[in-house]
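Dear colleague,

As promised, here are the two records you asked about, laid out in our usual form so they can be pasted straight into your sheet.

NAME FIELD: protein one
SEQUENCE, THEN STRUCTURE:
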Amino acid sequence: MDAKDCYEIGLAAYNEEDFYHSILWMEEANERYYLLEKEFREINKSDILNILSVSLYKQGNLKRALIIIDKLIELDPFYPNAANNSKLYEQELLANGVVEEDFRLNIPPLNNYRSLNDSYHHFVDRLAYEELCRGENEINITQISKLYCYYKMDRPFLRLAPIKVEIIRFEPLAVIFRNVVFDEEIEIMQNISLPKLFISPFGRNNSSKFRISKGATINARNHSIVLQIAKRLKLMTNLNMMSAEGLQVANYGIGGYVEPHFDFPTVYF
């Protein structure tokens, strides 16, 4: 991800008044800005600093917000509302008993409070989920030493075309099937799903903040390649595909996500 990607995610969070994430992403955008080639800088450094400053202010970090707005004014003295925001931060610091000489000194630790309405257990689950996404939930060396790869050849056809399987975790069991879908197949599925994309529902709701994405379901009637992949999935998993759903194609885009949740099957009797 480059600075532009980080900025767009931070902007999406800012527009949702999710200042916890807008601070994180705007700080990342600020750090990565100078890694962009000048001719490819599609974002403005001033915009990054402005949103970062306001987000810090909203989270109660007055001194940090003031320091960032100083940098913004130095970079662009006529940036809209920058001077007014600077005065606002200074007035609030004075109201909090901070003397002018100390406005930019003795900076307290960052306060980036995350407001969640979830229960404690849901909150803990969410943190674990996000750690996994960031690759921070590492497996210890003893567990790693037991992991292995193998060729799946338990069906006659697989004797001719074995499937590469990599076990990445035992508790719970998680595996990666390697090289089972080709670039040409992915392109075909993208092309046939593109006109079918619609806002992804969550449960019985047509739209929800739990999931921000667009999705489409494709099946063998749409293209023969879907049938081929379904047959391949049967060989990969040893599951019966007769009652399986169609293949789901999702586009999350910048700022899209899905909250951690349990899936419940629909059972017909």
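NAME FIELD: protein two
SEQUENCE, THEN STRUCTURE:
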Amino acid sequence: MIGRPGNWFFVVPWIAFIPWYGMLITMLVCWAAQGHPIYWFMHTEQFPVYISDIGATNLRPLFISCAGWQGLGYVITVACEFFQRSGHWPGFLRSSSNKDYSKVEYHETILSKKYFMPPYYTRHERNLIFAAVILGGLGEVALLMCTIFSTALYHHVHLSMVGVFVVLMFFSVCCQTAQYFMMGRRYALFHPLSSENPDAIHALKWYQLAGYKYNKFIISASMKVVWLALAVVWAICFAAISDNSKSACFEWLLAFWFGVLFMIISWDFYMGGRYMYSKYFHQIEAIHGYYKYDSEISSSKESSFASTISEAKLEDSADADEININNQV
């Protein structure tokens, strides 16, 4: 049975890619309704035609708008990953809080801070997702340029932008995959079902796993690896096959396959958002040596200490006022 979501961020990826699918289906339907034409700027017979060929016709406004929507949606989606795990958007400082957090157990501290997903364990994971946002944003700008500079009028520029888009998106997804793999390696060690010492992470090589290996982070990283491997194969086929008909088939396949990535991210958001309802989350007593958790606990203690000092000052002030009144009397 599917449990209730912890938040609604998992809907964001669907909002981002559904118009993209709508554009692809609309293009195919319109091309079929027109009788599968070979357009004036094409030099050979082929079936099907490339996405860019249809996008260079009267459907160009649809091509530009939906590609732009998908691009903006991808950047916002990856930025939502950063926000849910850090408490602030990429490039913005985290707002200070005046609340008094006196909890010392990490799960209570994290719950009191109201993170939408469990925070990062190290700065490396934070930096990876930030890099994914930047690389993805630049890649999506290149895709938008592909739609603006149509293959009919600016063929070489169009192809160059396609290459830039593919390369940058590859590295963006690589960063996301590495982030989840790194989080999964650490989560596997301090998971309640693990018999390993969390300090064993220092004895492991970067590719080794120990403890509770089949956790949600490792599963997500594995799905992204499979997605990325197939995407690379199909991208190579799209670029390397000289037969335009077969090459176009791989382009369409790759375009629809892109939507699967959004589905995986949506699953990440859904599972991550439910961490507060996990039967194992409250069994973890402490995580030592991880910057986000340690900083939260440290800030909790500092806040508690500051509150104690403030109360002491108020008491001293009240005592002094009482002494002055007695002296006057």
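A couple of things worth noting about protein two: The chain has two domains: 10-290, 296-328. Confidence is low (pLDDT under 50) at residues 96-104, 300-316, 322-329.

Best,
R.
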